[in-house]
Amino acid sequence: MKNIFIILIIAIISNACTTISADTKKDLLTYHPAYHYTSEKNWVNDPNGMVYLEGEYHLFYQYNPFGEKWGHMSWGHAVSTDLKTWKELPVAIPEIKNSDGSVNMVFSGSAVIDSLNTSGLFEEGFKFGMVAIYTAHIEKDGKGIGQVQSLAYSSDKGRTWKFYDKNPVLDLKMTDFRDPSVFWHEGKWKMIVVKSLEYTAQIYESADLKSWELVSEFGKIGDYAKIWECPSLFKVPIENSDKFKWISMISSAHEDTDYVGMQYFIGEFDGKKFTPDAQKGVLRIDHGKDFYAAVPFNSRPDDQKYPIIMAWVNNWAYAGDLTAEGRRSMFIMPRKVSLIEKNGEYQMVQKPVFSDVIPTQMINLSMSKSANGKTIEMKSNSFHLNFTIDLTGSKGFSIDLLKNGDEKSTINYDSITKKLSFDRTKSGVVNFHEKFPSIENMTVEPENNIIKLDIFVDNSIVEIFANDGQAVLTNLVFPKNIGGSVNFNFVN
Ligand code: FRU
Question: How far is the centre of ligand 1, averaged over its atoms, from the C-alpha of 108 (Å)?
């Protein structure tokens, strides 16, 4: 019976394998990703102000110019023309010291292109003014004393910035009121911002980005086990239709409430109020431990077709203790977001904007049960695997990634429970924090007994897209070796 399975194995190894000695291998070990963006040095967290202007994608982000720990929060800056490779630019918006000894850190927020000069901050007729709407986090003697929404603006494509001289533009006299996400909708600016410890998202509107009126709010729904941060609200296409729904993404707790994670709501937005649909349980964007603060790009030419998001790859549970190399953390590859209708319900789908990650080893494999025990030698820790797995006759499978002796990061699939798990307990350096070694899982329904996995491994990040992005898991790993193998086994 076992022999009836047809094996189709196509391995495309784009780079020729080279022989590397053990010593050189140690020297080549790096946690710096080859095809994910991160700053050359120092600390990064949330993506901020992601916006497109005149052929350039701008990624601003929370950045500490002075070290690899969180602090002195400023907006770092990188640009890309293709969302694939990024060029780091100097700090865009720095922390400011006030005359009374307090400091205004530049916390998370968004950026828009004020092409009609609604703000009056630019010269008449200037179409390319960029305005950043961010949270000024005011700290005195090391203690947060206020969070207010403020503006900075740039007339040279985000290279140099001025602070608006009448900041702040929104002040509720609160200490946890942050992360404004602003977008243009039907002739007005809309802002979604959170009262973090009240688990409430507020929606404001404005004609000029300077004066804001509260139009609605929602809160204490879905997951509010921990905190609400980095909200967003955007229109998302429903695949195979010409219809759209609105999605609000909120950074909050992970399923395991010892960690942070992200949820989303699907609903309708009438220009003032976001009304979430009834939902069964909490909708999770990514089931890994290292996906947070995701937000969409603003002002892309084909915004209406599909939004693109980026997220911070880390978890506040251990963020500051993460194994570092003069820098800490990174961002996911940009992902396209859409909705599909399944069993009468809508569900978010995420796909990488590009998957031809270069330079890297790429393996395409279709396998059925007789491919059991397959081992693929990898020449580095940066590669892309595309597996189509036929479950016929098996109870599941396991894939060891980055396998070197006992060291491995393992994907397990159980055909009965339909759970796909990722185990990083033996993935290499795990003991820098007790919360780091972990096993996460997500439900993946086979389609005609087939599971498709698109797996991106990039030195210290693993992004797994199951069944064309219907379930996604992002995790950090810190292998101690390079150039191990990928091992595939079916479970009988
Ligand atoms: C989310 C967050 C935001 C805040 C920023 C500070 O990771 O806590 O709420 O604006 O980080 O760096």
Answer: 6
